Amino acid sequence: MGLSVEQCRAGRALLSWSMGDLAAAAGVGIMTLNRFESGQTIRPGSIDKIIAAFTAAGITFIAAGESSPDGGEGVRRDQPPQTDL
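Predicted structure:
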């Protein structure tokens, strides 16, 4: 599965994650994430790590053409995020 820039930004927004938060969770450099979100190409392995970090945090990605109310690509939260209180 691929990951669009818009899905990446939406996933971060749902989790209230900064670029630094996502970079740390995915084990990629913040410059790699910055390049990706600015539309540049990054290694497929880095994209896989970003997707895995989102998935571990409870984010489900909806690809274009997959079942969703509007039929477009997007993200959906599986479960409420875990918070440390």
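Summary: The helical segments are 5-15, 19-26, 30-37, 44-56.
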